Amino acid sequence: MPRSRAAKPRGSGVSPIPAGYEEVMSEMLGSEAHESMPALFIGHGSPMNIVADNGYTRDLEALAARLPRPAAILVVSAHWLTKGTAVGADEHNLTIYDFFGFPAELNEKKYPAPGSPAVAARVRALTGERATPVERGLDHAAWAPLIRMYPAADVPVLELSLDVTAAAAQHYALGRRLSPLRDEGVLIVGSGNIVHNLGIIDWDEDAPVAAWASEFDAWVAGCVAERRHDDLVEYLEHPLGRTAAPTPDHYLPLLYALAVQKEREDVRTVHEGIQNGTISMRCLQIG
Questions:
Q1: pLDDT in tens, 88-127
Q2: Which residues, including other chains, have CB under 8 Å from residue 30's CB and lie 6 or more apart?
Q3: Which of 41, 72, 119, 149 supports an S-S bond with 257, CB 3.0-4.6 Å?
């Protein structure tokens, strides 16, 4: 497969490992054999998937059952937008209900997964101290899929924000810096949607699929299969790019997941489908 020529992070050498990090990770991994974690892109879609029983939620549950147990989970969130990059450094995560107009039962759900300041410090080091540790909790880009995948909420979870001042190529380059985490037992998850245009949506989950949404979703899938990361970084050059992703927030997490793809490593589609006529629910496993 052709190698991507997308922007690579500046600098060289090994990022420093914060004091105590290896001990904390060893404790979280326990006695299980250590293995490199895959990375994921999860299309999280409507908050209704928190309580729904459908093909998407069942595929998430099956995916988690196949994966090695992570020491921690780092979610690149479509719902945390900042100037500059931030990383969650909570010891104990609050559940953020960053949605409205949905049934009250969703606001009764809690996802009290612990955080990991140690992993946050490692993320800060890997990003050249660009990621500022903050205490914030988990928005639904993280906890909505994770409540289906790890319902016991017993795996430490932290989030990485999206810098609204950065270009897509800069996000991809920052994602590359996170690659060592996979070999340290951290599951990297980009959580967004490949196609996400709330201005053109049918609130019926099973609405007929818009042809343009299907076309762009299929184009992205083809680029992923052929490792055409440059094209995916330059997604706005596609005739449907601005329709499929009129704002970048839900698309950019895909670039973080793909940025940590290793040489000769395949990407597997673990769910494919479109909800509400235009929301791509495609989910990918890298490695």
A1: 999 999 999 999 889 999 999 999 999 999 999 999 999 9
A2: none
A3: 41
Q: Where are the domains of the chain?
A: 38-286
- Pairing outcome for strands 274-275 and 85-88: unpaired
In whole angstroms, how far apart are CA 214 and each of 169, 211, 257, 282?
25, 5, 21, 11
The rounded distance, in Å, linking the Cα atoms of 34 and 188 is 16
Q: How far is CA 64 from CA 145, 157, 262, in A?
A: 10, 15, 21
The answer to whether the CB of 245 falls within 8 A of the CB of 235 is yes
Q: CA 253 to CA 206: how far, in whole Å? A: 25
**Distance, CA of 71 to CA of 130 (rounded, Å):** 23
Name residues whose C-beta falls within 8 Å of residue 200's C-beta, 6 or more positions apart in sequence. Answer: 210, 243, 277, 278
Ranges of H-type helices in the chain: 21-29, 55-66, 117-126, 140-149, 168-177, 211-225, 229-233, 241-244, 252-259
CATH tag for 38-286 (out of 2.30.30.90, 3.40.830.10, 3.10.310.50, 3.20.20.100): 3.40.830.10
Backbone Cα Rg of the chain = 18
Tokens of 255: 């670039």
**Helix 55-66 crosses helix 140-149 at what angle (to 10 degrees)?**
70
Q: What is the edge-to-edge ordering of all strands in the sheet holding 157-163?
A: 131-134, 85-88, 157-163, 72-82, 186-192, 39-43, 283-286, 267-271
pLDDT digits (tens, 9 = 90+) for 243-275: 999 999 999 999 999 999 999 999 999 999 999
